[in-house]
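[stage:ingest] chain + small molecule ((2S)-2-hydroxybutanedioic acid)
[stage:ingest] validated
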Amino acid sequence: MFQNLKPVAPDPLLGVTEAFRADPSTSKIDLGVGVYRDAAGQTPVMKAVREAEQRLIARQTTKAYVGPAGNRPFAEAMTRLTLGDAHPVIAGKRVAALQAPGGSGALRLGAELLKLSGYTGSVQVSDPSWANHVPLLTGAGLATAPYPYYDRATGGIRSADMLAALERLEPGTVVLFHASCHNPTGADLTQADWQAIATLMAEQRLVALVDIAYQGLGNGLAEDAFGARLLAERLPEVLVAVSCSKNFGMYRERVGALLTITETAERTAIAMAHMQGLARRMYSMPPDHGGAVVAEVCGDAALRAAWDAELTAMRSRVNGLRRDFAAAMRRATGSGRFDFIAGQSGMFSMLGLPPEAVMTLRTEHHIYMAPDSRVNIAGFAGPEVERVAAAIASVAGAR
Ligand code: LMR
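[stage:predict] done
[stage:export] tokens:
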């Protein structure tokens, strides 16, 4: 049977890590997969997370099952973190939340829920989008189609083209948005863009699927959730896939949540029962540890404040690295071609290099980035910014 399986290409992002690990160079630099690194080049366990883990381990008396919905206080905390405490869908009991194995698990669960609800259209995905979005959606049997998003010439957004494309969609079409820190481009929608999108989506009766994987790493916890909160306020039906990988530094623990908002409390209760059924059929229930840790952090005022302070420090470090990298690129190229990097947000920017240049950076300079020339700015330890900028300038060519 297994002779029928054909060899597959490595995952576009995880394959970068594999290639990096296999490189014996002692001066190699990994700007591939999106993990935050501190000035020492480490991806630390956040202090608030470590403290919560120690408390949990000290008081844990059982490893008995939690259930397909996962940790309820965690799901409640994610609802409030994402939507804000005073969001009308919370008071109206129109939102249901379920713990999922990471943001990817939440996206897959959301896709399965759409499929189960009889959705036969294409999920509209920004051009470009995170390399795993389309596989996660098509893996659930859904079709996808791109909508205009990134302006490769300016590093900004094609707002007018995007709105025109959304206006042409059939009512009920599902549109996937990045809440903030757009992956792979770093080009985010402004609040005015979100307002225009929300108005159009409401008029056209479109459904939003929002991926929020970097809350707090762009401009702030509330700022990075502005679009998700607005869409949840203005539209009758919204799905939100939440990830705690980056903002809690819980990558390997696989912590996420799916929030489902429907038109009425009754429909939401039914949707929640189906979400649990889907979880049961796919993986039975999520891993406990990460969700319990995040619930502990969010449920304790001192830990929550400590986490907030650490996240703020991470955010300002990433924003500082953005400015440093853009300035280094200006010095290395003698032009403002890469100035857009300073004005973008989150962990990523896309340099607009051809695949051959990305490969030359790997083979000749031992600098690793995603094949589409996405760099993880949060991956710089710091001092290597100049070296990376010089290497990029040497392969970038004229434009
Ligand atoms: C990334 O985009 O690098 C991260 O979201 C990690 C991943 O799973 O792809």
